[in-house]
């Protein structure tokens, strides 16, 4: 199981980051089970409307609806996870940590606050890493 934060979702479905190609291929092939919650989808929708993101969508000839449709096609929605014992300094990222801890999932993030917790998360059965590291694994 895998939990993917919003910035990595943008790399996957908006920016087509080459580092995310293996992840995208694994999702397309059904080799990874991506789990998320409705609030995570709502955050993605909110981010796609940010003034800095809208021009990037246009540049890459993508629409917010297309990105959300890709999210919907690949993700399995789960109930919101209970608060984990480990706390993130960035409250916006706590929901990703909570879900990963509940399901002992791989957590892909570019967020420094999340990645700095990697050692603490291992004790809870979670491997937190940057998507770029997925290429090397």
Descriptive labels:
137 residues; mainly alpha; Rossmann fold; 3-stranded parallel sheet; two-stranded parallel ribbon; globular
Notes on the structure:
The longest helix is centred in the first third of the chain and has 11 residues, at 38-48. Helix 3 (38-48) packs antiparallel against helix 5. The protein is globular and about 40 Å long. The strands form two sheets. It has a three-stranded parallel β-sheet with strand order 1-4-5. It is mostly helical and 137 residues long. The chain is built from nine helices and five strands. It has a single domain (2-136), classed as 3-Layer(aba) Sandwich (Rossmann fold). It has helices at residues 6-13, 21-28, 38-48, 54-59, 64-74, 94-103, 112-115, 118-122, 131-136; strands spanning 2-4, 34-36, 75-77, 106-108, 127-129.
List the helices and strands and how they pair.
Elements: E1 2-4, H1 6-13, H2 21-28, E2 34-36, H3 38-48, H4 54-59, H5 64-74, E3 75-77, H6 94-103, E4 106-108, H7 112-115, H8 118-122, E5 127-129, H9 131-136
Parallel strand pairs: 1-4, 2-3, 4-5
Query: What name does CATH use for the topology?
Result: Rossmann fold
Mass-distribution shape:
globular
CATH superfamily: 5'-nuclease
- Helix tally equals 9
Parts with pLDDT < 50 across at least 5 consecutive residues: none
Q: Quick summary of this structure?
A:
The protein has helices at residues 6-13, 21-28, 38-48, 54-59, 64-74, 94-103, 112-115, 118-122, 131-136, and strands at 2-4, 34-36, 75-77, 106-108, 127-129. The protein has 137 residues and is mainly α. It has one domain (2-136): Rossmann fold.
């Amino acid at each position: 199981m895998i939990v993917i934060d919003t910035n990595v979702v943008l790399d996957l479905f908006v920016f087509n980051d080459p580092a995310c190609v293996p992840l995208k291929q694994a999702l397309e092939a059904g080799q990874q089970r991506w789990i998320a919650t409705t609030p995570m989808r709502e955050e993605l929708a909110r981010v796609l409307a940010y003034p800095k993101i809208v021009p990037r969508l246009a540049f890459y000839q993508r629409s917010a609806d297309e990105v959300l449709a890709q999210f919907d096609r690949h993700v399995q929605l789960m109930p919101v996870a209970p608060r984990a014992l480990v706390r993130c300094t960035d409250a916006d990222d706590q929901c990703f940590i909570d879900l990963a801890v509940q399901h002992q999932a791989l957590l892909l993030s570019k967020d420094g606050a999340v990645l700095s917790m990697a050692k603490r998360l291992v004790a809870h059965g979670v491997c937190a890493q940057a998507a770029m590291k997925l290429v090397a694994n």
